[in-house]
Design a protein that fits this description.
By secondary structure, this protein is an alpha+beta fold. The protein has helices spanning about 1-25, 30-90, 95-120, 130-145, 165-185, 210-230; strands spanning about 150-155, 190-195, 200-205, 235-240, 245-255.
Length: about 260
Amino acid sequence: MEYFKILFPYVLVLFILVILIYLLSHFGIFKKKSTFIIPRDVKQANFELELARSLSGIKEETLQYIKYELQNEVAQKLSVVRLLISRISYSANVDRPKIVDEIYLITGECIRDIRNISAACVNQHAEQASFFELLQSEIMKIKRTTLREIDLSINANTLELDREHGIILFRLTQELLALVVESSGEKIICIKVNDSERLTEIIIEAAELKFQRIMQKFGQKFRNMAKRAELINTDIKTTALAPAGTQISVTYNKQGTWKKSKLQS
């Protein structure tokens, strides 16, 4: 009995400590900490998933462009070269120099096409390329594959962006441009890039693209893209442009960056 009296205070203190730990872990500071950590982990996981999707999408678009160039440009021109070479054997000596000149000219065009393909392949290294390099490459591809004119204006030579955020921002811009090109029949599309210390704003304007038409056709896509854009503190807004056009603005908030870029470390 006396032994029990000696141990009782220690057992009581231990029991109280266990009760306190239980209460704190379920209703106190420990729970607050866990509820803070879990949403951040989910946000990081969603960000990494969106980054992977963006890189995959950029590379897929590049492969499609290379396929287009090889099939519709280089292959057709080489077919003409083959026909010209076959003509040399049965052509008169007077005509042969002219045929050789044509072969030389078309071969030179094929070489230029291959160089353009090489320039576009900067997208295959999107992890190293800057947003501005990716955008210039995309504009070049649109001009070649759709015969559209892209009027680009930018108020800075370089854009200071988190590199991983820049990849996702470019992929969103790339998708928006594709929607505009698909929906608009006009020949000129305007892109303005306004960069400041706090914000980077990308504005896409199509003067003949009716606002109601594009929202009716792609409204759900715009809403999904707006949710994806929130992962990098970016707002996407679509507004009517007088008299009958559409303006899409993509505004990236630099000061809202919540993560450290792995690509910069």
